[in-house]
Amino acid sequence: MRRDTRTAPEQKSLYLFSGFLRCADCGKAMTRSEVKGNVYYYCRTYKDQSKAACTKHTIRHDHLGQGVLYAIRQQVYIAVAFSEMVSRINTAPLQKSQSIRLNELIAAKEKELSKIMCYKQSIYQDWKDGEITHKDYRHMQEDYERQMEAISEVISLYEERQSLKMGLIRKTRS
Q: What average pLDDT does this structure show over 132-136?
């Protein structure tokens, strides 16, 4: 709206590129001309002043339109790609921190499982040494087995979540 434009003589509407086209060398506005049904834009400095003042610049309207449309499409593509990349970047730290947290939980549960296995082994020795009865040994053994089974299930769940997270991270990167 703020462009310095004018309508062509005897015309009521502006042409598409009115007020936008400038000569790359001298910076003056380019003029529209129609020759044998083809529309061209050319530098007035070269035509009106002198051939030494500027070089001959012309471009066909249809070529210009195709070039502008291509440039707009490229800018839209870049904007969409940039937006997708930003959203991937924004979610990546969250996914990475969740993955780290799952690794820590798995390690903690594996440590707990190892500890219970040691307890289970030690109660056998206690039974053999006569420190506990066979009945106590069986109860304690069953209890430790239940705990080990529950911990193993939790570890499996964490590992499954982690493999799903890793799949999502790989998917968002590709």
A: 91
Distance CA 48, CA 33 (A): 14
Residue given tokens 């069953």 in the structure block:
142
Model pLDDT, residue 174: 53
In angstroms, rounded to a whole number, what is the distance separating the alpha carbons of residues 63 and 34? Answer: 14
Q: In b/e form, how buried is each residue of 64-96, taking b as 16+ CB within 10 angstroms?
A: beeeeeeeeeeeeeeeeeeeeeeeeeeeeeeee
pTM over 0.70: no
The answer, yes or no, to whether residue 7 has pLDDT greater than 80, is: no
Cβ neighbours of residue 15 closer than 8 Å, sequence gap 6 or more: 8, 32
At 85 the pLDDT is 82
Give the separation between CA 43 and CA 49, rounded to whole angstroms: 10
Tokens standing for residue 95: 């996914």
